[in-house]
Amino acid sequence: MRIYLLSSFLLFSACNVVEENDNVKKSEISLLSEKINKNPSNTDYLLDRAMFNLDKNKHESALFDLKQCLLIDSLNSEFNFLAAQSYFEISKYDKTKSEYGKLALECIKKSTDSDPKNHLALSLHGELNIAYARYKQAIDLFNKSLKIKYNQFKTHHLMGYAFKQLNQHDIAIDCFQNSISINPIYTQSYIEIGLIYQLRNDTLTEIYYNNVLDIDSSDVITLYNLALYYQDNKLYNKALVTYNKLLVFDAFNTNTHYNIGFIHMELKLFNIAINNFADAIYSNSVFYQAYYARGVCFETLGNIAQAEVDYRRAIEINPDYTFAIDALEVLINTNKKYK
Hints:
By secondary structure, this protein is mostly helical. The chain contains 18 helices and no strands. Helix 3 packs antiparallel against helix 4 (77-93), helix 4 (77-93) packs parallel to helix 6 (119-131) and helix 13 (236-249) packs antiparallel against helix 14 (254-266). The N and C termini lie far apart (75 Å).
């Protein structure tokens, strides 16, 4: 009974803390709004409320106040930088606002023109240029930003990405390494280096992907890439172990189930592969490649009727899938004499 009462008290206390925190937040935004209502041309108050909303990733609410700031002082570097940042973030998740990318560019250009030493604005200007595939211009802006403040891990990373898009992979690796030197737990730079080495089928791929997994063992993209690297190099045991680790975090990963099935086909374990392809189909009912692969397994094991069903289903989903079309034709011709 005591345990129950104690638990209830702790729960009640925790609820009170949450309510008190919510009240503090409400009072903070309410106070800012009251100040703005009394003095709507005070950019300090408008900026404070914008920053309050930016801290909570409420970019549209922040942009409302930043627009007001810009009406009062259109050339202010900070206002333009924050407005550009908000426009850019909104454009990432709201594809209906296609003009926001252009508006972000307009604001960030005003920001860097007003304050050429604003390293954050220069870096964002570079990032926006990447979004428009202007990689050389982006690199120039990143270099300007880094000359002002070198220890910006994200800017080094973005510059590496720009060089990668220009197929200058060795320079890109150097940039990603600089990013890691500044922030050793920034996994994105390890991933990018791993991807470059994976394209080269270099054994260093394994090292960089494992660096990511040492930091975050649940990174399913890295687990998948590492497993695929093992699979491509016929390191099937390692591939299966890694794919199964991935399934712990993403049990319905269609491609993972399919690839496990493919490995079991390579190992001539067709009964197991059939189950793997069934799992892939369960995760994605229109995965026509899985129907075809399962059909191959059934045909290999002598289950001609089920193989025909799977080939036909693959063709039904994708009428142009030649592998299934050809397999079905051969299956029918080969087994005519048995009908």
